[in-house]
Amino acid sequence: MNTIDKQILQIALPSIVSNITVPLLGLIDVAIVGHLGSPAYIGAIAVGGMLFNIIYWIFGFLRMGTSGMTSQAYGKRDLPEIVRLLIRSVGIGLAVALCLILLQVPIRQAAFQIIRPTEEVREMATLYFHICIWGAPAMLGLYGLSGWYIGMQNSRIPMYIAITQNIVNIMASLSLVCFFGMKVEGVALGTLIAQYAGFLMGLVLWMNRYGKLKKYIVWKGVLQKEAMIRFFQVNRDIFLRTLCLVAVTLFFTSAGASQGEIILAVNTLLMQLFTLFSYVMDGFAYAGEALSGRYIGARNRKAFTDTVRHLFIWGAGLTVLFTLVYASGGNAFLALLTDDRNVITAAGTYFYWALAIPAAGIAAFIWDGIFIGATATRGMLLSMAASAISFFAVYYGFHTVLDNHALWLAFLVYLSMRGAMQTLLSRKVMEKSFH
């Protein structure tokens, strides 16, 4: 195995582990309240969890933007800028979190107007929301820290943090529910404790691993006008891109739900195949962020080009592997998730769409990482906007004829369009990065 492949795997593998542990926080909460005797508890956790997933998803630019800019500064060996980027990102994350805490009541009220839960679920979800919202500083601060670590070519620390958060969440939530007689509030407090445990661990590990960089902390340069403008330009594009992505994802769920419970269940199960693929490919996207930014910062065009080629070789191999695994064992996997024969039978009608997901999505995942590393966020935004438009155009053009098949066709067109658009823009991005 050559040096580039080793570098890719050193970042990708810990990132994959981190990605897989993320949904475990929500699953743990659901598993605990699922034994409290009322389905309303599960509904409250589901509603509250969905709200925070959307909120934190929207502010994911704090991680992605920080990763790209930090990796470039790392390639330049610009240690003062590396430190300024960390302070800038974490500071902005904490400021955003403060705004979320101050606006928690209108945010919750607006969300419930859209979701419209039952009165019992609303009451419990309100309690869950108003406890967990205080975790926003930890979560958004950790976004900045995680992006910075990845930019520094270190994905092991985010992995350690993610694993620790899950262990703390299990111990705290179970203790509060089982030994202190709490219900939804116990699960919410357990989640809150885990979030701050992760953030504090991130700070402690920074002091241990990068404490020598403290001498470069100069507050005057953190708010420097040109640097702040660039920071917000990069993150604005990622923010708008994320809104397009959220719109497609939420519409996909909504359009499936409008076709009845069976179709909603089928789409949800088949989408798990996409989710599994995305956890792995995001790991390689993170490697693309770290390495492409590093080599752009170092002005090493050859290493950059080699990295891109090797990332696509890994992507192609994983696409073939996932397609074969899904083709041979996909139905068995669905049977693990549900024993409803009607749902499993209906899923067979749409299963071939799910088989096409790896091939349709591979380029989008790889290019996303490379574009973030190059801070070519405008290209990401344009690609995502065009892809979202194509998604809605295909769906509304065919849904009266193809029903749920139109939804899956639109989703695959959307994935393919992202990759195709970024492939077309990649030459321009490379020329701009090494001009």
UniProtKB/TrEMBL annotation:
Single annotated GO MF: xenobiotic transmembrane transporter activity
Record Pfam families: MatE
Key words, A-Z: Membrane, Transmembrane, Transmembrane helix
Topology of this chain in the membrane: Multi-pass membrane protein
Residues passing through the membrane, by range: 12-34, 40-64, 85-107, 127-145, 157-182, 188-207, 238-257, 269-291, 311-338, 350-367, 379-399, 405-425
GO cellular component: plasma membrane
Keyword Repeat: no
Name by which UniProt lists this protein: MATE family efflux transporter
